[in-house]
Write a structure and sequence with these properties.
With 328 residues, the protein is α/β, with parallel strands linked by helices. It folds into two domains: 182 residues, FAD/NAD(P)-binding domain (3-Layer(bba) Sandwich); 125 residues, FAD/NAD(P)-binding domain, CATH 3.50.50.60. Helices cover 31% and strands 25% of the residues. The chain is built from eleven helices and 22 strands. It has a five-stranded parallel beta sheet, covered by helices on one side. It has a five-stranded parallel beta sheet with strand order 11-18-12-13-14. Strand 13, helix 8 and strand 14 form a beta-alpha-beta unit. It is elongated. The structure holds flavin-adenine dinucleotide. The site of flavin-adenine dinucleotide (FAD) has 34 residues, from helix 1, helix 2, helix 7 and helix 10.
């Protein structure tokens, strides 16, 4: 009996488990390792912040999924991979031996490159920490006039813009003077998107009284203040960090081949070129032949590739996505 260890209950592994539930692979013991039993579908996160969905609506319970797929579930966090010994080391002190390993642990916004960000900002991921900070913010809104609170999002990508819009929806009051001020501080709105998309989002932000502070390079955070390269300081009671994705350090430290940003290099079959018994999908993976954006839609489509039902993400989808014709 061979052992397949799935690390992370991300979008691709959810799809793998769903397929295993329908068609179990013979002669394989499957183990899923995840620090949480519930994994968020982050495409719905802005809707959760805005109040459109409940927490249950946006989370998938991994335990029944594992039960149906005949997989064991280990609720812990992987902290390192021993590639020579073919085992992963976990935060609870356990190690799990594997014949094949698959990584789908996502990414987090890069808090390391800006001093003070880790201490004074709340990253958009993990979702659980953002929700906790958001609940705290709502309590503060109840305690003092919301109109005196200042919320800021650092990062003007699609995620940052969505989160700012969701915060406005949640804090909307009949009297706009009673709403918190919301700003996006960024060196560029929607980089990588079309001019038309940028114009539409800028209009949506202006229409909802969200200040777009573009052309600002954030260089430091201190308690309640964002410091820009120009010397400008932006005061904020809550700073949400929504900058580009960073890789988890232990993947690169394991000796696995990685790209220059520390994401696991994989071929079209999602297999590591340095260690063919290791696979990676979703944000943690970097496809060497044709890089794809760090987006959940790609992670979902990588599930069938991991199970061997497809040999690559289909080209028609890639073309549509790149042309901006596929909703996220
Ligand atoms: C606000 C916001 C909105 C977004 N909206 C969209 C959208 O509309 N459409 C879209 O396509 N993308 C969207 N994205 C991007 C999307 O969230 C990611 O690209 C997607 O979640 C990546 O999926 P994944 O499978 O790589 O990992 P994830 O879905 O992030 O899952 C990773 C899992 O791994 C687990 N994990 C982490 N570390 C460890 C560890 N050490 N050991 C074990 N398990 C671990 C985590 O608990 C988590 O369950 C959005 C992102 C944000 C921040």
């Amino acid at each position: 009996m061979k052992t397949l260890v799935l690390v992370g209950g991300g979008h691709a592994h959810v799809e793998v488990l769903r397929r295993f539930a329908q068609d179990r692979p013979p002669g394989v013991r499957v183990v899923l390792i995840s620090p949480d039993a519930h994994t968020p579908y982050s495409g719905m996160l802005p809707g959760l912040l805005a109040g459109h969905y409940s927490r249950e609506d946006c989370h998938i319970d991994l335990r029944p999924l594992c039960d149906r797929a005949g997989a064991a579930f280990a609720m812990t966090r992987v902290e390192g991979i021993d590639l020579a010994g073919r085992r992963v080391r976990c935060a609870d002190g356990q190690t799990h031996q594997f014949d094949a390993l698959s990584l789908d642990v996502g990414s987090t916004p890069d808090l390391r490159s800006v001093p003070g960000a880790a201490e004074h900002a709340v990253p958009v991921k993990p979702v659980s920490a953002l929700l906790e900070a958001w609940r705290d913010m709502e309590t503060r809104c109840e305690r003092r006039p919301a109109g005196r609170l200042r919320l800021a999002v650092v990062g003007g990508g699609a995620g940052g813009a969505e989160v700012a819009l969701a915060m406005r929806r949640r804090c909307r009051r009949e009297d706009p003077g009673d709403e918190p001020a919301i700003a996006i501080v960024t060196n560029g709105l929607l980089p990588g998107h079309s001019e038309r998309a940028r114009a539409l989002v800028a209009r949506a932000l202006a229409g909802r009284r969200i200040a777009l502070m573009g052309g600002r390079l954030v260089v430091r955070l201190s308690a309640g203040e964002i410091h820009c390269a120009s010397g400008e300081r932006v005061p904020a009671d809550l700073i949400v960090w929504a900058t580009g994705a960073a890789a988890v350090p232990w993947v690169g430290q394991s000796g696995l081949a990685c790209d220059d940003r520390g994401f696991a290099a994989v071929n079209d079959s999602l297999q590591s070129p340095s260690h063919p018994f290791v696979f990676a999908a979703g944000d943690v993976a970097s496809m060497t032949s044709r890089p794809v954006p760090k987006a959940g839609v790609f992670a979902v489509r990588q599930g069938p590739v991991l199970t061997g039902k497809k040999d690559r993400i289909d080209r028609a989808f890639m073309r549509k996505y790149q042309a901006g014709r596929t909703p996220p």
